[in-house]
Amino acid sequence: MATWSNFNLQNSASPLMEQIIFFHDHTLIILIMITILVGYLMINLFFNKYINRFLLEGQMIELIWTIIPTITLIFIALPSLRLLYLLDELNNPLITLKSIGHQWYWSYEYSDFNNIEFDSYMINYEKSNINNFRLLDVDNRIILPMNNQIRIMVTATDVIHSWTIPSLGVKIDANPGRLNQTNLFINRPGIFFGQCSEICGANHSFMPIMIESITIKNFINWINNYS
User: TM spans, by residue (predicted)?
Assistant: First the structure.
C-alpha cells in the first residue's frame, strides 16, 4: 500500500507489476537523456554568438533529427507492445472472481463455487477498531490463493467504475452492460489495497478494494468453511 512521502511506485506483488516498473524505469531513462540533450542545446543557443547568413537548408542534419527520434520511439514502443500483450495473456486460470461495481460498494462472486457471493463495504473508521486503515479497510475481504493464475471478470450495475489494485498492476473499467476480463498472479502472501479510480459519484472515494493473499491450502479451508 502507499505510505507517507513515497513518490515511487508501490512494491510489486505480481510478475506483471514488476514488468510495468521495469518499463517505467526504461522510459524514464530515455526521457531524462532527451531532456538533458535538448536543455544543453538550448542553453548553448542562448549564450553563443555564432551566425551564418548563407544557411538556407541542411538536408543532412534534418535527416539525422528525423531518424534519431524514430529510433528512440521504437525503443519505447517495442517493450510497450510486449507489455500490453503480457497484460492480456490468460493461461488456464485456477479460479474466476467476478467483481460488480455499485454506487458505492463492490460485490463479489466466486463463480467456480456454489453460494459464495458477498458485498464489500468500507468500514467506518470512527466506529471500528483503531488498527484498521482509514478509507481502505472493508468488512468482507477478497480471499485469493497465491502463486496461481486468477481470472477477474468486472462489470457494473449503474455507472462506470474502475477496479484498481496498484501493487498488482491491475486497472480495469467496470462498465454497465459490459463484462471486462483481466488476470492476476499474486506471488507473495499479504493484504493489498485498491480503490475505484473512475469518478462515479458523490461517494466515489469510499469504495475501497481489499485482497488477502493466502496459500492454496488455507484457501481451500476458507472455501470449505464458507460453504
Answer: 20-43, 63-87
